[in-house]
Amino acid sequence: MPLSPLKPYQVRWARYWMTLVFIGFMIFLIGVQPDLIGMNRSEVVGFVQVDVWLVGLAILLTSAYASVRVIRNHRSMSLRADVGVRLIATGYVVSAAASLADFIGLGAQHLPYVTFGPIQVIGLATGVAISLLGLLLYWPRNPKPKDSSKSRRFPRLRLPFSRRKDSEQDSAAEEAPAVE
Fold it and tell me: What is the pTM for the complete model shown?
């Protein structure tokens, strides 16, 4: 979460972008399954149908990126966040290439009878998963609290069979009389 609380205008922008995420998701669903609104007119997957789900996915990913950017609240970009932004874009490219494979000549079917095959479904799902992983990496991490008692990265292990016990020997040395 942000280091400082979000201002009211930032909350409004985050809500606006999240509304666009929902709209993009609905457009994506309508493109993938046009039966939801009674628009499935053929058995083949058309170029317009593929374009609809790609536009919905683009709206979804762009607005999700923008909403997380508002939530980041002017934090500096870490390597993790930078990789996340690139994974969002890479996932979209993978999804677009898998979806348009038959139309650009990479697929197994030829125009005009194009069906969306299982390999294309796997490519689309993989691209969406890569984009979601990118969003998770771009999400801001909570700052770790500074605790002085845990100054060591790897704490010293106290084994029960060790010969020297610091606290016992220190107290024994204080109680023993000095021999001259």
Answer: 0.73
